[in-house]
User: Fold LacI family transcriptional regulator from Amycolatopsis acidicola.
Amino acid sequence: MDTRSHVTLEEVAQVASVSLATASRVLNGTTNVREDLRERVLSAATNLDYTPNVHAQALAGSSRRTVGVVCHDITDPYCAAVARGVLREADRNGLLVMLANTFRDRERELEYVSMLRAQRASAILLVGSGYEDKEWARAMTTELEPYRRGGGQVAVVGRHRNLKADSAQPENRAGAKALAAALVEQGHRRFAVLAGPLNLTTVLDRLGGFEEGLAEAGIALSERDVFESSFDRDGGYAAANELLAAKHKATCVFAVTDLMALGAMTALREAGRAVPENISVAGFDDIPLASDLAPALTTVALPLEELGAQAMELALTGTRGGRSRVRRLSGEVVLRESTAKPRRRR
Assistant:
């Protein structure tokens, strides 16, 4: 009996003692792989009598109808809303979407891109913040350039430095600046920021815009006012507890995402700090949950589904060579009950 179809790419990688991404690069013809690793992979594939499985071949045969979407965390309402926009536009064009979740793991992101190349997806979309990391950008470029030269299309959501690709970008900096101005208008003068990892372009843009908005009002934000944590609900919860432990005097807390703001409001409530009576809280994104919180969350509303739809359209209309196209989508400050004029301290 012929058992070749039962040998997987994972088995080849294991026998060759390389990562799944490296095995995929070698077998897909990527040139930027060390010669010793290439020989190990090819030898393992020959000894195992490896051939691509029938399912992968079927996907490759229908490449014109397949789009790969790689996102950081599909459980994050931000990513889910953007993915909805991608799916809407894909459905309108009769395309099949393959969705991959990286769990915010950069190596996994590279592996998924490599696998999508192997399955000859006609377009690849990266959904999520870019990284301030030149090494990551070089590794991703190594994956995407041969794919692009072979006719594949690439588009990203968000600002990705050092990565050549068409992009749909939310106006993070301008939105955060406008939010700062609105909070100052409410009467706040002491602020704290709950930030995600400072190697993410989204975090840097929102933090920078907020600082700029405060500076125009004559208010300085110091390093002691910024509490860095993970880019999710638990990160907001932990950062708010750090703020409380530091006995920070902020009358208003800006969390760089609504999910972080949600975690912060929970921590403040547990500590007996009423929102907004004792302290105001603002977020960013306007995920569907933001208006349902008690109190409803002040935030910057972004057209999340439209971001996904625009990225999908860019991928479908992409051309080889030339400058990368950028479509910028602005946000709008939405003032709700979670922020109010600060009360005087006794």
Q: What stands out?
A: The mean pLDDT is 87.
